[in-house]
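REQUEST FORM: STRUCTURE PREDICTION
Request ID: SP-0412
Submitted by: Lab K.M.
Chain count: 1
Length (residues): 144
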Amino acid sequence: MIGMIVSGHGHFATGMTSSVELIAGHPDHYVPVDFEKNHSTDDLKKNLESALEQLKDCESILILTDLLGGSPFKVSVELSVAHPEKEIRVIAGTNLGMIVEGNLVRQFSESVDALADQLVQTGHDQTMKYEFVEREEVEIEDGI
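STATUS: Completed
RESULT:
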């Protein structure tokens, strides 16, 4: 099984997890890690290490973070390098669709790399700008 950790600034992780649970039920082998205002990066590192320990029975781990270059992303990357014995991959720019899909399909993924690639594509596919296009009204006459 591929374990999942979601981390981000403020209550990003627990907020996203609340939404995932509403949509798809409680996820197994999944740990949210918030990086709150009063946390240092050392606190974040300890919390992410605790999450890794909770997922120690997983073959590999995918960490989904909010911002590229933010502390949750950087600390996750550092931990992935520090633990070469685990296949840990890190994604930045996570949205809710990516987490929901990852939770639903990860048991069928051939590898953590394939899952990471799939979720990055999902993130791209689910990001768009809605544009309203006004259509000219056409008058329809009564009858056949």
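NOTES: The first helix runs from residue 12 to 24.
Reviewed by: T.R.
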